[in-house]
Amino acid sequence: MNKNAFRQLSYGVYVVSTWDKGRATGCTANSAMQITSDPATIAISINHDNYTNQCIQESGKFAISILGENSDPGIIGTFGFKSGRDHNKFDEVESLIKGYMPVVADACAYIVCDVIDKMETSTHTVFLGQVTDADVLKKDDAMTYAYYHNVIKGKSPKNAPTYIAEEQPAASEAKYVCGVCGYVYEGEIPFEELPEDYKCPVCKQPKSVFVKK
Predict the structure, then answer these.
(1) pLDDT band at 39, cuts 50/70/90?
(2) Which secondary-structure segment (H or E) carries 134?
(3) Which of 33, 54, 110, 210 is deepest in the core (most CB within 10 A)?
(4) pTM of the predicted model as reported, rounded to 2 decimal places
C-alpha cells in the first residue's frame, strides 16, 4: 500500500483550540470538514495522545483557526510540536476571543463549535461540532497541507492523521533536518555558514537542534 496516495486528498492546516480550566490551549490539525450546512456542523479528528483531546472532552467546545498561506509558520511549530501539558502555547502567539473561545489572530478565518457527538477510533477521536460562531479575519488563501509540505517544507507531527515516516536521504544527499519538527533546510547559504541565531522557520527552535542526515 502506497500511503502517499492519501496526500492527494484535500487537507487544510488548522489550530484547534479550547479551554483547559480557564487556560487557552490547542494543537495543530489537518483533518476538519463541514458535514452539514443547516444546522452547520463540523467534524475534526484529534489524536488521543494530544492534550487538546482531553480538554475538548471536558469543555465540550472547540474552535478552529484556519491558517492562511501568509500566516506565520511558527504558529504550526508552536501548536504542532509542543504539548499543552507543558507549555502555555497561547502565550507565544497573538490571540483573540471569538464566540467565547480562544482563536489565533494570524488566521484567515475561525469557526467555533459546541460538541454534539463523537466517534472513537484506535488512535483518534472524531468530534462533531455544531457551529455557534464563524467569521473571516483577513483576506488570505487558506493554507493547504500540500502547500505546507511542498512550499514551507514542513512535516506532519507524529500524532497527525496524515503522518508518514519519511525515508532517510542517501549519504550523497545529506541535508540538515530540524530534530524537533523535521523541517529540511534547503537554503542557498550552506547550513554551516548560517548565523548562530538562526531558528527553524517552522518550530522556531535554534540552529543547534538541526542534525545532518
Answers:
(1) very high
(2) strand 124-136
(3) 110
(4) 0.77
